[in-house]
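Hi V.,

Quick status before I head out on leave. The structure for the redesign project is tokenized and pasted below; the design run finished overnight.
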């Protein structure tokens, strides 16, 4: 199978983006969603008897053929950037999406449990008031990385426990929002006010919740993040953030995703 090629004008668009804001020098936070896995396409196979499904269908631990191509393309895409720091979800599909890039560029990505998927809670965050977050969000197992990947994925000293996202209700939504807020706090503490470029690699809902935490006045988070889609926000002089890129498409002056970004 020949790998798909990225649109020829993609990197030209990214270059234009940098030229549009030549004086901007704030912190840039990039977020990459993992490549497509079998769990992402289960609905596409719903009309097919399960005994006729390929092995990957429904499996969150296997890339689809399309996902395997996305990993190749994402690797080439990320090589067009310079990142001062990288962090990744502890989940297999997120790690494996960026692992080829890390190997080729001889970099490491710190494991952040806050970047793990937040489940389906995004669907219940449409204006409903949320209770206070739980008092024990770190209620699950320790983060673990396979021995052959440890040199690429160091664990953060204060981030060695997974979060409890096994339930789906308003309390879970409140907890997910709190975790996204913690991610923003970590980013501000370590990199706020700098000129660094940070890459985070995670999941669809997690990426949108994080975008909501960074851009509380924007509806951009309601737009679906494509597999291996990249968004980027840039810190402003007043400490707020502005959306510059969504699903690889430069945003307009209003900070909204481009027209090619699929809305829910």
């Amino acid at each position: 199978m020949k790998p798909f090629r990225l649109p020829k004008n993609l990197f030209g668009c990214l270059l234009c983006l940098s030229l549009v804001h030549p004086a901007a020098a704030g912190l840039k936070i990039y977020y990459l969603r993992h490549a497509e896995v079998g769990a992402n396409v289960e609905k596409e196979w719903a009309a097919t008897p399960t005994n006729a499904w390929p092995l990957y269908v429904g499996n969150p631990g296997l890339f689809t053929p399309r996902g395997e191509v996305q990993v190749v393309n994402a690797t080439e895409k990320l090589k067009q950037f310079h990142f001062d720091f990288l962090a990744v979800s502890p989940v297999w599909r997120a790690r494996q999406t960026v692992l080829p890039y890390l190997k080729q560029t001889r970099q490491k990505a710190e494991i952040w449990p806050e970047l793990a998927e937040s489940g389906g809670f995004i669907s219940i965050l449409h204006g409903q008031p949320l209770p206070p977050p739980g008092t024990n969000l770190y209620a699950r197992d320790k983060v673990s990385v396979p021995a052959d990947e440890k040199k690429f994925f160091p664990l953060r000293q204060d981030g060695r426990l997974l979060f409890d996202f096994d339930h789906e209700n308003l309390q879970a939504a409140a907890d997910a929002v709190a975790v996204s807020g913690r991610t923003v706090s970590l980013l501000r503490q370590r990199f706020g006010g700098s000129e660094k470029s940070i890459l985070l690699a995670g999941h669809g809902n997690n990426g949108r919740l994080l975008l909501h935490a960074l851009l509380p006045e924007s509806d951009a988070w309601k737009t679906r993040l494509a597999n291996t889609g990249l968004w980027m926000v840039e810190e402003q002089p007043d400490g707020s953030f502005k959306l510059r890129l969504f699903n690889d498409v430069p945003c307009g002056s209003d900070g909204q995703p481009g027209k090619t970004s699929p809305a829910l």
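Above is the designed sequence. The chain is about 25% helix and 10% strand.

G. will cover questions while I'm gone.

Best,
W.
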